[in-house]
Input
Amino acid sequence: MKFNPIIIIVFAIFINCNNSIKKQENKSKLNKIKVSLNSKNDSGTSGFASLSEKDGEVILEAHIMGLNPGMHAIHIHEKADCSASDGKSAGGHWNPTFQNHGAWGDKDSGFHRGDIGNFTADSTGHGMVMFKTDLWCLGCDDPIKNLIDKSIIIHAGEDDFISQPSGAAGARVSCAGIIK
Output
């Protein structure tokens, strides 16, 4: 049986293009994780957070209930371990770039990859956080960006963006491990 070389070339191009399209589709697929925020330090603070990644950016959306009205800090911590009643099993702030603690994006003073910042809880104790960055990923091979096996910590107080190493934000009142 004799094969036409043109048909073989066209077929090879078709297979190659089809594989490229599949790879591109996989890159742009939405990657999502939803976690429950559990009370720490007998605070009664709970909620949920969802993390989604698309086109190289991660969006964090968190809803927290049972807070005292006012400002609270939210950070990413280095371990997905929320087993301790005070939340300290989650370790310190996630800081894979070994920078000083500070306000997110502060190129002069530095910031941890876990330094998300502050949010306000309303008079009913509900707070909401929306945060978007290309400095994180969900399950990629880059240890400086990968959020998997880290945790989300909600603090009793406000981050001052100055105190080292954690912003003097007070007790950990809620914790969620980021696990796939």
Summary: The CA atoms of residues 157 and 170 lie 5 Å apart. The beta strands are 31-39, 46-54, 57-65, 70-77, 115-121, 127-133, 150-155, 172-178.
